[in-house]
Design goal:
It contains seven helices and eleven strands. By secondary structure, it is α+β, with helices and mostly antiparallel strands. It folds into two domains: 92 residues, Disulphide bond isomerase, DsbC/G, N-terminal (Nuclear Transport Factor 2, Chain: A, Roll), CATH 3.10.450; 137 residues, Glutaredoxin (3-Layer(aba) Sandwich), CATH 3.40.30.
Amino acid sequence: MKIVKLITALGLLAFSLVPAFAQEAVIRKNLSEKFPAFAKIDEVSKTPINGLYEVRVGFNIFYTDEQGNYLLEGQLMDVRARKNLTEERIGKLSAVDFDKLPLKDAFKIVRGDGKRKLAVFEDPNCGYCKQFERELTNIDNVTVYLFLFPVLGPDSLAKSRNIWCAKDKPKAWNDWMLRNTAPAAAECDISAIKRNREFGQKYNITGTPTLIFADGSRAPGAVSAQEVEKMLLSAKTP
């Protein structure tokens, strides 16, 4: 009797999954036919709203109906819970496991006991990065893993090379970012900088500075010292 019940339950489960797969196929087919950009849809999934589906293309989130006849790009809000569901979803997709960061491609700046950890992707010519670095001087007891991430042009790459190839990388970085003293010209293997840019592309790092905390959470822009302290406090040590 138990075997019969199990077989029946499995049959009902399989039957219930058929419409879901069929619906996904319809959405993929209709959107790809109408929009070439949707030829490679990574994921189609239901949202908490009946009849509304999430369509993911890379790190881009869209919403559509059951037939893929209508398309919406924007933020989906849960008003009752006061949550931005789109933002939460993108945050989960782009989360970075701190333990898997390629720390060999960064240099360390240690303040105080260095027990807390923070990774930052920065461009030496980024004005917001310089603003953030001034804020960072107010943070103690932290190890900062600095990933050079030149995205603003050839001069950014040249400065990143000179900083990476300097005998004292943290000093060269701080001299430029805090005291506006340009790093001396230097040459060495800068494949690490190339890997940083590839890593950023893979994990949707589109601007500088981008901060990554020990729990994988991220923060973009010139975050204030108070906000950094708050996020360091809430982040779990890996």
